[in-house]
């Protein structure tokens, strides 16, 4: 793929040079020039991937004998910015081109300051600007890729944190089951012990009942050991009563000072134990969150039971005095609740309501498939990852602004440096030019003529000199080049002609 791209690039750039040589008037050296141009272009493209600055130097140097190589300069400059991560080699390359070009143009060929200014400006817009655009494009790709990698890392970290919360919730579920099953197994062991000492049992049945009692006791101990492994290090054993229900929980919260009321609708029949534990945990977590984030707010617990499902809803109003300062939420409590409800076959929804907050769980009495909504909070991208991506895009836009503005600013600075030099004491005011009369002696014009002439003179082929005359050139102060705008020709000290070279 890279080879195909390089061949296509060579073909396009070479076509611009070849076409000019083919359609040009007959040139005995056109064939050699064409072959040399194609070879140099192939060399520039070939070394472009390993040594991008070298390819740019080859193209710029080739413009000395073939002008159409100038079309390849912005392309190679762009590729230098796109392919190189460091800016210093490119800066050295442009500095070398500027110094060598100045020495060749001004020192060898004897061109004027205006020509140097034009070539320097061309280097800025045909070389530096495309390089900055290519560098911006490289940064854009790198930043977007890094942003997505960071977003993926943050999402994986969030999933891992959510998974830890889920495991903790499963451990709490196991502890709850231990409280329930341990209680039931203890009752079985107690009943077996009573049968073991009954007087009407023979020895064979008494041994069987004793073995049953020992097995139940051993199972209770094993259950306690397993739950002890699941419990976090240093976590205390549950302190609430195993048989405590939602009503007891609400009563304890009310005794602690919360404004909470419980409403129960529907069937009074108890739900399956797994559902009862999930209902209890939903109410417990919702009351805890209301205490932290909406202190002194009124809380309503609505418990609706039917033969098929239990629906529990906990709604708190807005806090009268606002939330407590410094209280933040990680969302792990809701993740744990979703896992608890999902394992019970239900679905959990939570969100703002009328300035407060509502948590609702629907729990079917028959175990069913977990709702897809259970993982909604885990699948969504983290706000932090989205913020980092926006910041990355903002930095890319800033680099694009630099790419566009830098050449313009530098060109403006060069103009501010060049313009005073080109126009210093060489500006002829239009009113003074109009006051001059043909035939006036130069001494009569002494107060009207500037002290010096412009540096750059027009081509004699465009403005031929009158026979026997000597001509002087002045500017009207046109920015930024300060080019010649007036020509005054004298013969024996008298004004022969005066010409306005630009309107």
CATH topology of the domain at 244-381: Heat Shock Protein 90
Helical fraction: 55-70%
Task: Please state how the strands of the largest beta sheet are arranged side by side.
Answer: 1-2-3-5-4
Radius of gyration computed on alpha carbons: 45 Å
Q: Outline the low-pLDDT stretches.
A: 368-382
CATH architecture of the domain at 244-381: 2-Layer Sandwich
Cα separation of the termini: 55 Å
How confident overall, as mean pLDDT? Answer: 77
Helix and strand run: HHHHHHHHEHEEHEEHHHEEE
Count up the helices: 13
Brief synopsis:
The protein is an alpha+beta fold. The protein has 13 helices and eight strands.
Which helices and strands, and how do they pair?
Blueprint: H1 2-23, H2 30-46, H3 52-62, H4 72-83, H5 88-108, H6 113-196, H7 203-230, H8 246-255, E1 260-266, H9 273-293, E2 299-305, E3 309-316, H10 332-343, E4 347-353, E5 356-364, H11 376-379, H12 383-423, H13 430-435, E6 470-475, E7 484-491, E8 494-500
Parallel strand pairs: 1-2
Antiparallel strand pairs: 2-3, 3-5, 4-5, 6-7, 7-8
Helix pairs in contact: 1-2, 2-3, 3-4, 3-5, 4-6, 5-6, 6-7, 6-10, 6-12, 8-9, 9-10
InterPro entries: HATPase_C_sf, Sensor_HK_TwoCompSys, Sig_transdc_His_kin_sub3_dim/P
Region (Disordered): 368-389
Keywords: ATP-binding, Kinase, Membrane, Nucleotide-binding, Phosphoprotein, Transferase, Transmembrane, Transmembrane helix, Two-component regulatory system
């Amino acid at each position: 793929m890279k080879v195909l791209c390089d061949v296509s690039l060579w073909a396009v750039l070479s076509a611009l040079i070849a076409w000019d040589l083919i359609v040009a008037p007959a040139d005995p050296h056109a064939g050699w020039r064409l072959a040399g141009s194609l070879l140099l272009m192939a060399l520039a493209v070939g070394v472009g991937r390993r040594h991008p600055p070298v390819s740019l130097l080859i193209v710029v140097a080739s413009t000395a004998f073939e002008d159409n190589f100038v079309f390849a300069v912005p392309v190679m400059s762009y590729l230098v910015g796109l392919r190189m991560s460091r800016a210093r080699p490119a800066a050295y390359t442009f500095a070398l081109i500027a110094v060598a070009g100045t020495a060749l143009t001004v020192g060898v060929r004897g061109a004027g300051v205006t020509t140097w200014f034009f070539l320097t400006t061309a280097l800025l817009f045909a070389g530096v600007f495309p390089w900055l655009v290519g560098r911006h494009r490289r940064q854009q790709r790198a930043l977007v890729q890094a942003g997505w990698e960071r977003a993926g890392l943050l999402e994986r970290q969030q999933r891992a944190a959510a998974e830890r919360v889920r495991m903790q919730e499963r451990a709490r579920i196991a502890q709850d089951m231990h409280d329930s099953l341990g209680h039931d197994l203890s009752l079985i062991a107690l009943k077996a012990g009573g049968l073991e000492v009954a007087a009407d049992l023979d020895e064979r049945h008494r041994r069987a009942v004793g073995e049953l009692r020992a097995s139940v006791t051993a199972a209770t101990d094993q259950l306690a050991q397993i739950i002890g492994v699941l419990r976090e290090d240093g976590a205390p054993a549950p302190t609430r009563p195993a048989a405590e229900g939602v009503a007891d929980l609400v009563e304890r919260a009310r005794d602690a000072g919360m404004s909470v009321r419980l409403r129960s609708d529907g069937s009074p029949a108890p739900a399956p134990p797994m559902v009862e534990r999930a209902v209890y945990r939903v109410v417990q977590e919702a009351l805890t969150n209301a205490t932290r984030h909406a202190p002194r707010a009124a809380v309503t617990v609505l418990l609706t039971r039917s033969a098929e499902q239990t629906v529990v809803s906990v709604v708190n109003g807005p806090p009268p005095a606002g939330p407590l300062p410094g209280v933040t939420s990680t969302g792990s409590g809701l993740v744990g609740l979703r896992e608890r409800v999902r394992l019970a076959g239900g679905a959990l929804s939570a969100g703002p309501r009328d300035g407060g907050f509502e948590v609702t769980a629907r729990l079917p009495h028959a175990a069913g498939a977990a709702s897809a909504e259970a993982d909604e909070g885990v699948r969504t991208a983290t706000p932090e990852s989205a913020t980092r991506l926006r910041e990355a895009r903002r930095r890319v836009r800033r680099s694009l602004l630099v790419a566009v503005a830098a050449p313009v600013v530098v060109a403006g600075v060069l103009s501010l440096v060049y313009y005073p030099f080109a126009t210093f004491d060489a500006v002829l005011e239009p009113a003074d030019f109009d006051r001059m009369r043909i035939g006036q002696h130069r001494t009569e014009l002494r107060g009207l003529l500037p002290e010096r002439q412009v540096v750059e003179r027009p081509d004699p082929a465009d403005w031929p000199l009158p026979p026997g005359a000597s001509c002087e050139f002045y500017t009207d102060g046109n920015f930024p080049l300060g080019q010649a705008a007036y020509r005054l020709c004298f013969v024996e000290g008298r004004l022969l002609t005066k010409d306005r070279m630009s309107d």
